[in-house]
Design a protein that fits this description.
0% strand; 3 helices; mainly alpha
Length: 62
């Protein structure tokens, strides 16, 4: 991935401000990358993201 060093530092800066801002920055980056893919593959990836986020939410809401 182009600019991986740039994104690593951007994620660290956002995480330092707040965990939520870091997560939003990562999801925005993922959204931009998935726009370039075939829609079927992108939809599958979003389904996997949704499942992972639901599992995380369930774990921390208990």
């Amino acid at each position: 991935m182009a600019g991986s060093k740039y994104w690593t530092s951007e994620f660290k800066k956002a995480d330092a401000r707040s965990p939520k801002e870091g997560a939003i920055k990562r999801l925005d980056r993922l959204r931009r990358e998935l726009q370039r893919l075939d829609p079927v593959i992108a939809n599958r990836a979003w389904a996997e993201v949704r499942t992972a986020l639901e599992q995380i939410s369930d774990r921390y809401s208990r």
